[in-house]
Design brief:
Number of helices: 10
Radius of gyration: 18 Å
Bound molecules: adenosine monophosphate, manganese (II) ion
Number of strands: 8
Shape: globular
Largest sheet: 8 strands, mixed
Amino acid sequence: MITPIIDLHCHSTISDGLFSPEDLVRYAHSKNVQVLALTDHDDIDGLERAKGIANSLGIIFINGVEISVTWRKRTLHIVGLNFNSDDKGLNDSLKAIREGRDSRAEKIAHGLGMAGIMGSLEGARSYSKDGAVGRIHFAQYLTKKGHAKDVKAVFKKFLTPGKPGYVEHLWADLESAVSWITKAGGDAVIAHPGRYDMGSKLYPQLMEDFRGLGGVGIEVLSGSQDPSQTNYFANLANEFGLLASCGSDFHGPGISFRQMGQIQKLPQGCEPIWNRWPVVKDLN
Ligand code: AMP
Ligand code: MN
Ligand code: MN
Ligand code: MN
């Protein structure tokens, strides 16, 4: 049996991706993706648009979102999958997070202004268009203005802890994010665990807390974590009874770490999260 190409984490212009929801799905199709979740940051406005194209191209579409949370003073990302996108609680909560992003963006611009970079809020908004402003939009503007050679270099120089455009921000708490997703009928998943650099004591603590709150999965494979970490997270998933998810975290050519649809197979022994979804499970 051939393993289907499943990509459960990517972004469109609704948050900080380069492609519209429609173009993103067409792009996924060109990369032979068979099951796709669109997971924009704190926003589910792109889901209906993406689903329409996915249906016409024969791609199985899964509703998704990536929610920023604060856990023990750290920022983590929680992916929600396969929820009801009409759920009022989820929609209202995401709206509140986006409003928080607006005031955060003002603070980022202030910090950059102190470093002599003026006009960055308007500049970032010209990239975010109608969506909430994120650090990538500042990075795109600063790159265009020649403050660093590319988006990655801008993050390093301006937008990470200790740098002039970094602000501490209190996101939703882990418990709230998991409960919004779960109450909307979806599955909560820890996104790109390898990005958090937490060490061998805190990782198990996170898994335990998350599981206790009703979280069900973790991204064992992620385009934004080092493949050498795969087995560590596969083992943690098994130890804590969490299911395995996988996604490219694709944002667009040139600003992503990994290409869409180029996900390896899950390690043996992992239980895939899509076994919970009959429409995908039956593909295998
Ligand atoms: P925000 O949610 O506004 O804090 O922005 C986080 C987003 O910035 C992530 O989802 C990535 O898309 C992007 N990002 C974070 N770190 C980097 C980096 N070092 N290089 C490029 N993009 C990054
Ligand atoms: Mn992003
Ligand atoms: Mn993320
Ligand atoms: Mn992401």
